Amino acid sequence: MQIIRFILGRIILFLDWATSPRPKKISSSELKAIQDKVKDMTIYEFRACPFCVRVRRFMKKNNISINTKDARRNKAFAQELINGGGKLQVPCLRIGDSSSTSGWLYESKDIILYLKKHLGISDEK
Ligand SMILES: N[C@@H](CCC(=O)N[C@@H](CS)C(=O)NCC(=O)O)C(=O)O
């Protein structure tokens, strides 16, 4: 089972790499505005999780750079996620830099929706 998961993970990472979206062209002031709005956010993820790949691709396309923490490889990050968010499930977006005031948002679709609203990104045709 672990071997199948490993192979699937490699395939997911390869496909993601091979079809990686191009970032939209934006001005440096737009880029700076995005960076300011996401500077206190963190994404907890597993590198080869397809739901995390979905969020990362959305971020890349929209020039969003958020600090990521790999909760598979780093047990301390996994514990942070369980303590703060309540469960070990990725992706999870931590909004806010101190654990006492942080919001923890699970579900890839909800994370993308939140980022769209927060950054004023409209749906493409
Ligand atoms: N519906 C969720 C699914 C997330 C999900 O199933 N994540 C898996 C990894 S791909 C997970 O966190 N599993 C917990 C574990 O493996 O311990 C989403 O869209 O974010």
What does this structure look like?
- Helices cover 50% and strands 14% of the residues.
- With 125 residues, it is an alpha+beta fold.
- A four-stranded mixed sheet has the order 2-1-3-4, sandwiched between helices.
- Strand 1 (41-45), helix 3 (50-61) and strand 2 (67-70) form a beta-alpha-beta unit.
- The site of glutathione has 10 residues, from helix 5.
Give the key terms:
single chain, 125 residues, alpha+beta, Glutaredoxin, four-stranded mixed beta sheet, 5 helices, 4 strands, 14% strand, globular, binds glutathione
> What integer value in Å does the Rg equal?
15 Å
> Judging by the overall fold, what is the CATH architecture?
3-Layer(aba) Sandwich
Strand order in the sheet with the most strands = 2-1-3-4
In percent terms, what proportion of residues is strand? 5-15%
Count of domain modules: 1
The largest sheet is: 4 strands, mixed
Secondary structure tally, helices: 5
Distance between the termini: 40 Å
Brief characterization of the structure:
With 125 residues, the protein is of the alpha+beta class.
Show the helix and strand layout.
Elements: H1 2-18, H2 28-38, E1 41-45, H3 50-61, E2 67-70, H4 75-85, E3 92-95, E4 103-106, H5 108-119
Helix pairs in contact: 3-5
The protein binds glutathione.
